[in-house]
Prior knowledge:
Elements: H1 3-14, H2 27-30, E1 35-39, H3 47-53, E2 57-62, H4 65-71, H5 75-82, E3 88-91, H6 95-101, E4 107-109, E5 129-134, H7 144-153, E6 158-163, E7 175-177, H8 185-190, E8 193-196, H9 205-212, E9 216-219, E10 227-228, H10 232-243, H11 249-258, H12 261-276
Parallel strand pairs: 1-2, 2-3, 3-4, 5-6, 5-8, 6-7, 8-9, 9-10
Helix pairs in contact: 9-11
Amino acid sequence: MEEAPGFVAEELRGIGIDAVELKSLSFKALRGIELLHVFFPLMAGAGFQRAKLLGIRTIAHWVGTDVALIKGGHRRVRERLSRPFVDLHLVDHGPLSSELATLGITAHHQPNLSANLKPELLPWPASPTVLCYTPAVRLRLYGVERLLWLARQLPEVNFLSCGAEAPPPNTPSNWKHLGNVSEMRPLYEQSRVLVRPTMRDGQGRMLLESLGYGRQVVWTQPFPAVYHASDDDELLASTKLALAAGVNRAGYELILRHFDRRRNTCRLAEIYRLLLGRLVIKQEEPNR
């Protein structure tokens, strides 16, 4: 989630909101701000308490892995976030709100988008190619072993992976690892399908970007315009279907309708307005 705060701040500045990305949540860093919006709130530490002592309104934005961690026994953090240190909880993927509800936390859906979300129907690649994400940690959570198994079942298909600097261990001959990639468009141009066999998940940015470029997606979570695969048999069958399906126009149209970056930013500005009780967008002075 390293990209989220900087990207959101830039998008907010684009509609006239004075937003900055904080490098720490010390008292010194927090002074002078009116609202604190934290992505991956488990990383905030005592930042929420400091903010409230300074009279700052606070938002915790949950993204997926953090929900799994809090459910897994971080009781001290769970209790801290459940108290009035946080004014509003948001989730980037709707089903996460149900998980948080079991912990006594009420959360509302607000997607976390990215600078790479630029909807465009790209031509369908000639070669069958799968794109996947392989991080340096939590390999089981992200289904890396399942991806390697899938590549071995489909030796005629090219697999491209990105994320960690180093490739996963024991990759087959049809696997190419590209490391940490900042410019993702060339990967989407080469790929027919994004496969994301996560054990649990938020609303991954690669998911939305793939749909926005008209790519097929195979995911272990139910979602519109994607192939749902709950086990290995479905993963293999769904990937074969997706590779032969052609451009995903339904996914492209879904992104246009429901994940427009400017509309998403304006919704966030409205949330800020409701929390602060006033308009937060700077108004231009009228010509005199």
